[in-house]
Amino acid sequence: MELFNFFRSSASYRVRIALALKGLNYDYRAVHLGQNEHFNESYAAVSAARLVPLLRDGDRVVTQSLAIMEYLEETHPSPPLLPADPLERARVRALAMDIACEIHPLNNLRVLRYLVGPLKLSEDDKNRWYRHWVETGLEVVDRQLQSRPGRYCHGDSPTLADCVLVPQIFNARRFDCRLDHVPHVMRVFEACMQLDAFEQTRPEKCPDAQ
């Protein structure tokens, strides 16, 4: 397997965590978003969307981080990242989507570049935009975790939801977001970071880290 990704991409970090939790080896293919390498023709030949992450498994190509993790779950089911019960699986997916669909899209690199480019927002305004959506979005996640407390997002073993949560906290810290208002989120984050799968795949430990 090959993973095309960028060290600071939270969506890429999600997939690195999932691969590590499942003990799967892969070749790391760096695509530097800051240098617009995802727009190069060489990468366009691999990814029609020109986004990361992208997983190439033999002649099979999978894009979008949640789809990649679901693919890994179906092709390498042990250890599981989703519970066996359908309702419990839905809860884990919903927690992941609270971040991946409600927080992250408003704050990814394309959006931030558009804010300071065509819309001509100041750097301070851009950062205030970022912090607003992260801080309010994590409040939602915190309430979800409070309603059913466990060591991780769902119970006592890491799931797909934890793979999505941890990278968002790294982003939040990078932009100086307030996090003292989400104690349940931070409790789960700290528990996750005690596991090698989360610690060893963190952005600054990637081959392309700067």
Low-confidence stretches: none
Which outline best applies?
globular
* CATH architecture classification of the largest domain: Up-down Bundle
**Rounded radius of gyration (Å):** 17 Å
Please report the first level of CATH classification, the CATH class of the largest domain: Mainly Alpha
Number of self-contained structural domains: 2
Main sheet: strands, sense, barrel: 4 strands, mixed
Number of helices: 9
Order of helices and strands: EHEHEEHHHHHHH
End-to-end span in angstroms? 24 Å
The CATH topology label of the largest domain is Glutathione S-transferase Yfyf (Class Pi), Chain A, domain 2
Q: Would you count the extended β strands for me?
A: 4
Beta-strand residue fraction = 5-15%
Mean pLDDT, rounded to whole units? 95
Alpha-beta content class: alpha+beta
